[in-house]
Amino acid sequence: MNADVCAVACAELFRDDGEILVSPMGTVPRLGALLARRTFAPNLLLSDGEALLVDGNVIEGWMPFRQVFDVVAAGRRHVVMGANQIDRYGNQNISAIGPHAQPTRQLLGVRGAPGNTVNHRTSYWVPRHSPRVFVPKVDVVSGVGYDRAVGPFHDVYRVVSDLGVFDFDSPDHGMRLVSVHPGVSVDDVIAATGFPLHVNEAVETRMPTDAELTILRELDPA
Amino acid sequence: MRDKRMTVADVVGELSDGMRIGIGGWGSRRKPMALVRAIIRSPLKDLDVVSYGGPDVGLLASAGKIRSLTFGFVTLDSIPYDPWFRRVRESGRIAVREWDEGMIQTGLRAAAHRLPFLPTRAGLGSDVVRLDPELRMVASPYADGEVLLAVPALRLDAALVHLNRADRFGNAQYLGPDPYFDDLFCLAADRRYVSCEAIVDTAEFARLGPAQSLLCNRMMVDGVVETPGGAHFTSCAPDYGRDEEFQRAYAEAAADLELWPGFVDRYLS
Fold it and tell me: Pairing between strand B95-98 and B66-74?
């Protein structure tokens, strides 16, 4: 059930996005995007992970990487990236752990995170919420957080983890608990987070509707 | 018209130590692997590689060919991390210039347009700027005055790309869904080499695909090499997909220094 809650929480990221390209990295964000398009956000555009825009099995457009870069710069995109580390202002690291000249653990590289975060809406998906991921300070700032935000288009929207949903709508743009998933306590979230969270009234992440569950089973029989 | 057909050995023979070499494709997709393997077997050294990195980077690193790397990522796609890239990074054996992936396109485009730089927002605020002390900012000269990142031209000494079809004059065609940035790599380079699945008569192109599949023309290409399977084990749609089993064998061997010599003997020597 938690996987379904997470998929719905990811779907909710896209509710008000309208007619833009959504780029969900990872299985759960992708399920969320497909669910959102099937239900409350029918105008979203999605790629097949290669170069085609697809609606089910139907090819509706062409989106090779060079055009993705154009869309990034034009801003009509909402990306959901992973994060090996993320801090309280939403700085994200997918590059390397430890000193950059000789990391203790080399990761993917910054990829498009710097450009994404200064150009359009960005959210994050963290499948295992822990103090190793939610850290006071990330080792390599790949995605840009609020304390380093530059330019007119920076928009880090939300973080969805296996414990809850978070945003940055606080006076200092520090990470704020929006909701805890059913069965998770606020104390669980605080204990798994390596920096102070803003916690106001903690609501519970909504459950999937029956109709959403039916669609999720259809999209992902596993 | 000039016949530009060459052998893999001819191409490697035109490269020299210390060159900045751009490699086309993306991740583990349509990489000029036959040319990469030939470089591994050659005495070339101290290469300055620019790549949307996949196993090309891992293999060149395994043979100690890379002095420095300009990259935004290195990944095998279906396997997130390339073990050889991790090893050379975690042992501090190569110098890196880590850029946002869009910045690499911007830098190549500046080189292609013979500009010293092109401005972008990508990279601003991130550690890309902290980690590359050569990067400079530029203020918009217009009323907005916005401060942007001035991505320096990424001029290449040589570009190596792999396409589906080419003729002997250097016109080249991609038949898969994504051109990646292979045309841009060629435009940014002083010497441009295209390997291909098959060399065909020029008149064949129109039968094989639409005119816009002709990604590179002969102005952009100095050498053409016919290398059937030349992107293996990366994908080369629609001629073949990624050889996932082989890629797994590569990744397993690359992760284990006791297995690696066997892999080299069997596949790379």
Answer: parallel
Q: Which residue has the tokens 């780029």?
A: A23
Identify which of B174, B167, B206 has the alpha carbon closest to the alpha carbon of residue B32.
B174
3-state secondary structure of B221: coil
The per-residue pLDDT for B197 is: 98
Residue B1 lies in a domain: no
* A78 token code pair: 């909402």
Show the domains of chain A with their CATH numbers: 2-219 (3.40.1080.10)
Determine contact, residues B31/B160, Cβ cutoff 8 Å: no
Q: How many domains does chain B have?
A: 1
pLDDT at A104 over 70: yes
**Could you tell me if residue B2 is inside a domain?**
no
Reported as a single tens digit per residue, the pLDDT across B199-236 is 999 999 999 999 999 999 999 999 999 999 999 999 99
Chain B residues near residue A96 by CB distance under 8 angstroms: 89
In B115-134, the residues whose Cβ lies within 8 Å of chain A are: 120-128, 130-131
Which residues in B lie closer than 8 A to residue A152 (C-beta atoms)?
146
pLDDT of residue A1: 61
Q: Which residues of chain B have pLDDT under 70?
A: none
Model confidence at A221, pLDDT cuts 50, 70, 90, reads confident
Q: Are the beta carbons of B124 and A72 separated by less than 8 Å?
A: no
Look at residue B2 in the predicted model and tell me its pLDDT: 96
Q: Do A96 and B124 touch (CB under 8 A)?
A: no
Interchain proximity A109–B181, CB inside 8 Å = no
Residue B125 lies in a domain: no
Helix, strand, coil content of chain B in percent (nearest 5):
30, 25, 40
Lookup result for tokens 């020299």 = B16
Using a CB–CB cutoff of 8 Å, tell me whether A71 touches chain B: no
Cβ–Cβ gap B178/A64 under 8 Å = yes
Partners of B120 on chain A (C-beta within 8 Å) are: 73, 115
Residue B123 is assigned to a structural domain of this protein:
no
Predicted pLDDT at A201: 81
CATH classification of the domain holding B30: 3.40.1080.10
- Give A54→chain B minimum CA distance, Å: 13
